[in-house]
Design goal:
- The protein has two domains: about 130 residues, Rossmann fold, CATH 3.40.50; about 70 residues, Arc Repressor Mutant, subunit A.
- Strand 4, helix 4 and strand 5 form a beta-alpha-beta unit.
- The longest helix is centred in the last third of the chain and has 15 residues.
- It is built from ten helices and six strands.
- Helices cover about 50% and strands about 15% of the residues.
- Helix 3 runs parallel beside helix 4, helix 7 packs across helix 9 and helix 8 crosses helix 9.
């Protein structure tokens, strides 16, 4: 009697990546690809119809969806499909972002440039109930020192907090400027000032900081 295959769903907005990952997965007879998705909306629909053992998904999904992408989508998937083993494919190398993904509960992260070398190792680990972590990934956190976080937050003005809240909600700086009846240049300057006070240097780090500090949730 043959063993039941490990089911896999793959999600990526680039057809060539979908095809390439499918071929890599199906080289191993233990696995069976039962679904594909090219957007976060399509992915949730596929998972709602049948939850696989493993999900391999791109970190970035450019589609404007209520499920978002990146950390927002990952958080949704972990919450609504708790038994799903999630393997993230990403070009992101920011330690804060990668650490946050593991903190949220993903089972593994593979750099897209290393897919051909690492995907089999990752699938082996997940199939055995283990998590997979690339050797290059160094776990960091912006909330290791809660007091330090609170001190940084205390530096923000009410307007800066409001700008960050709107930005984290998904609004562009131009949209925020219109909402606040101010110039885009003013909004941009205040956002940069807020980021400096929080000691973050990129939008990715800013989003991670707000998520880990449980701001605006």
């Amino acid at each position: 009697m043959s063993r039941q295959k490990i089911t896999v769903v793959i999600a990526d907005d680039h057809p060539i990546v979908l095809l390439g990952v499918r071929e890599l997965v199906e080289r191993d007879q233990r696995f069976e690809v039962i679904g594909e998705a090219s957007s976060s909306t399509e992915l949730v629909k596929v998972l709602s119809a049948r939850v696989p053992d493993i999900l391999i998904t791109d970190y970035n999904m450019p589609e404007n969806s209520i499920y978002g992408d990146g950390l927002k989508l990952t958080k949704y998937l972990v919450r609504h499909f708790p038994d799903l083993r999630i393997l993230i494919l990403t070009m992101v190398s920011n330690g804060l972002i990668l650490s946050r993904l593991y903190d949220l509960g993903v089972a593994g992260v593979v750099q897209k440039g290393q897919v051909h070398l690492e995907i089999q190792k990752a699938l082996d680990a997940l199939s055995q109930g283990r998590n997979y972590e690339c050797p290059e990934v160094k776990k960091l956190s912006v909330v290791d020192n809660q007091q330090n976080v609170e001190e940084r937050l205390a530096l923000l003005s009410i307007r800066e907090l409001e700008i960050l809240r709107l930005f984290i909600s998904g609004m562009s700086l131009r949209d925020i400027a219109e909402d606040q009846n101010r110039s885009a240049k003013t909004i941009s300057t205040q956002k940069v000032t807020a980021m400096r006070k929080l000691n973050v240097s990129s939008d990715q780090e800013l989003i991670t900081f707000c998520l880990e500090a449980n701001l605006f949730q």
